[in-house]
From TrEMBL:
Record key words, sorted: ATP-binding, Chaperone, Cytoplasm, Nucleotide-binding
GO molecular function: ATP binding; ATP hydrolysis activity; ATP-dependent protein folding chaperone; unfolded protein binding
Protein name: T-complex protein 1 subunit epsilon
Ranges where the record places region Disordered: 71-92
GO cellular component, one term: chaperonin-containing T-complex
Length: 645
């Protein structure tokens, strides 16, 4: 087999060209080619060990045989391998073994032709991957979703821990808000992203409870996995969860209390509910003041008759460098701008302001133009014309009775100097959203042309002042005592930017809770009391159920128990001991207000501790978690784009 006749049986390794082709195709760079393989002689190419020209084939044979020879039947005395170096032919191995070997190798190789028409075989990087399906796929999806839930589990409750999120740019975010944590995480698994969207949906609709909904979903998936191991069908589990969810929703409505409050007089319940939300936040030391700010801000813009709150009318501004207790609510607008000229007045009483969206500059043609200045006289004419435009604009502002100008666009130093001479303090480069809020708060109209200026379109405010912060040059403009109180601003202070941002998120959650109470004034009690009451009711429903559904219903009750257990665990208490004690007291006293004493105040009655949660927020948690878990349970295959095997 070493003469000219053997040349047709032994292929040459064309490594360099094949490596380039393989890299372009995204496959391995090991390539074997031959002019006349002869079908069944592909193995001869790989076993060409005696020829010094094909040492590469000889070296790679053990690996290839281990990787690609799994479809071959094991050797027996009658089908033993020939000694190394011996020629391989159809007589030395049974026909069925060669056919099996060819089939295994053909599944992992592909034949192509080079530019000269010569065939060569490309070895793929690895065997074709088969997708996981059925029960294995469901368990894989459950594991991915539970990994996300376990991350948030330690952040649940008033004693929950914070997470530090580091962005690719190095920006640091410290928070225990579930929606923010998941939003900053780079979640790649497709099913795990469902929990990210779940938390975001809770945040968009309710604004609070983003951590609890993910923890509940993870607990439901854990219980579902146990049922799958016992042989229950995923559809039966999903149906049982849906039945249990209806029981839990009815129980929440039964244990809820209705609270009464007045927009101008009694807001005690609103403040206490907002304090419950702020208990787990970084600003919990000042939670009473922050809760009062949140309630005042919401009630200032709330339409109680329509049970509606327009959050667009509440502006959040933050400025690092102060203390958290310096946070204040301003019945007006705060913008991160300053007066355009240092010699202009820094405080204007009884301000009447022009709110302009037109540029404070000479008009420009809409087409491209060019102006050639060839002499000093021409330049003087151009300058005089520009001065005339500026003077006319300032005169129009003065004529309508304005004593302040707020412009969306910038203006040059010449116009700024003329405004100073006319005694008109000005603010430039004000954003469109802020300009609209200023118009709403001051009762003014936004003017698009100077010719439309009139006294009726001026915005009015009791005081406009420029505020400086510390020794820095940073300044902000405060517009207060406005004609309309429909727009307010919360100015948040803090030691650094991270604290300010977390305080803003915390206040937003508190405002959302107050808004929910304005829309629906029913509350349930926190500390896991509502979950334990629902768990007891669902367990009783499981006892009354027949068939396999009772196992899924009872598993739903166990998942509800996991929420108070997480609260106890994060508070440094014994989870099982606390849960069993509270559940026993609820059953004995028939009091659904008993929960986990996370703050260790000596009583489990959450009504006495004034730990309140909104009913619609708790119902939304249970509904969303159940829906997502049902969706995950019904997934038995994940098909990626371009994958059909």
């Amino acid at each position: 087999m070493h003469g000219a006749g053997a040349a047709g049986w032994v292929a040459r390794a064309r490594v360099s060209r094949a490596r380039r082709r393989g890299e372009r195709r995204g496959v391995a760079s090991v390539v074997f080619c031959g002019r006349r393989c002869g079908g069944a002689t592909l193995e001869r190419v790989l076993r060409a060990s005696s020829c010094p020209k094909h040492r590469l084939c000889h070296r790679l044979w053990p690996t290839l045989r281990a990787d690609f020879g799994r479809g071959v039947e094991p050797s027996s005395p009658s089908t033993a391998e020939p000694p190394a170096g011996a020629p391989l032919n159809s007589r030395s191995r049974p026909r069925r073994v060669l056919v099996a070997r060819r089939a295994a190798l053909a599944a992992t190789m592909s034949m192509v032709f080079d530019e000269y028409g010569r065939p060569f075989i490309i070895l793929k990087e690895q065997q074709q991957k088969s997708r996981i399906k059925g029960l294995e796929a469901q368990k894989h999806n459950i594991m991915a979703a539970r990994s996300v839930s376990n991350i948030l589990r330690t952040s649940l409750g008033p004693k929950g821990m914070d997470k530090m999120m580091v962005s690719p740019d190095g920006d640091i975010t410290i928070t225990n808000d579930g929606a923010t944590i998941l939003d900053k995480m780079a979640v790649e698994h497709q099913v795990a992203r469902l929990l990210v969207e779940l938390s975001q949906s809770q945040d968009d609709e309710i604004g609070d409870g983003t951590t609890g909904v993910v923890v509940l979903a993870g607990s439901l998936l854990e219980q579902a996995e146990k049922l799958l191991d016992k042989g229950l069908h995923p559809v039966r589990i999903a149906e049982g969860f849906e039945t249990a969810c209806k029981v839990a929703m009815k129980t929440l409505g039964d244990v809820a209390d209705t609270v009464a409050f007045d927009k101008t007089k009694d807001d005690k319940v609103l403040v206490e509910t907002a304090m419950t939300t702020l208990s787990s936040k970084i600003i919990n030391v000042h939670k009473r003041k922050m809760a009062q700010i949140a309630v005042d801000a919401v009630m200032s813009v709330a339409d109680v008759d329509r049970n509606d709150v327009n959050f667009d009318m509440i502006k959040m501004e933050g400025k690092p460098g102060g203390r958290l207790e310096e946070t204040e609510l301003i019945k007006g607008i705060v913008i991160d701008k300053d007066i355009s000229h240092p010699q202009m007045a820094k405080e204007i009483k009884d301000a009447k302001m022009c709110i302009l969206t037109c540029p404070f500059e000479p008009p420009k043609p809409k087409t491209k133009h060019k102006l050639d200045i060839t002499s000093k006289e021409d330049y003087d004419k151009l300058f005089a014309r520009e001065q005339h435009y500026f003077t006319e604009m300032v005169a129009q502002c003065k004529a309508c009775g304005a004593n302040m100008v707020i412009c969306q666009w910038g203006f040059d130093d010449e116009a700024n100097h003329l405004l100073l001479q006319a005694g008109l303090p000005a603010v430039r480069w004000v954003g469109g959203v802020e300009l609209e809020l200023i118009a709403i708060a001051t009762g003014g109209r936004i003017v698009a042309r100077f010719s439309e200026l009139s006294e009726a379109k001026l915005g009015k405010a009791g005081c406009v002042r420029e505020v400086a912060f510390g020794t820095t040059k940073e300044r902000m403009l405060v517009i207060e005592d406005c004609a309309s109180s429909e727009a307010v601003t919360v100015l948040v202070r803090g030691g650094n930017k991270m604290i300010v941002e977390e305080a803003k998120r915390s206040l937003h959650d508190a405002m959302c809770v107050v808004r929910n109470l304005v829309k629906d004034n029913r509350i349930v009690y926190g500390g896991g009391a509502a979950e334990i009451a629902c768990s007891i009711a669902v367990s009783q429903a499981a006892d009354d159920a027949t068939g396999q559904d009772q196992y899924a219903i009872r598993a739903f009750a166990d998942a509800l128990d996991d929420v108070p257990m997480a609260l106890a665990e994060n508070s440094g208490l014994s989870p099982i001991t606390e849960l069993t004690a509270v559940k026993a007291k609820q059953l004995a006293e028939k009091n659904p207000n008993l929960g986990v004493d996370c703050l260790q105040q000596g009583t489990n009655d959450m009504k006495q501790q004034k730990v309140f949660e909104t009913l619609i927020g708790k119902q939304q948690q249970v509904q969303l978690a159940t829906q997502v878990v049902k969706m995950i349970l019904k997934i038995d295959d994940v098909i990626m784009h371009g994958s059909y095997a």
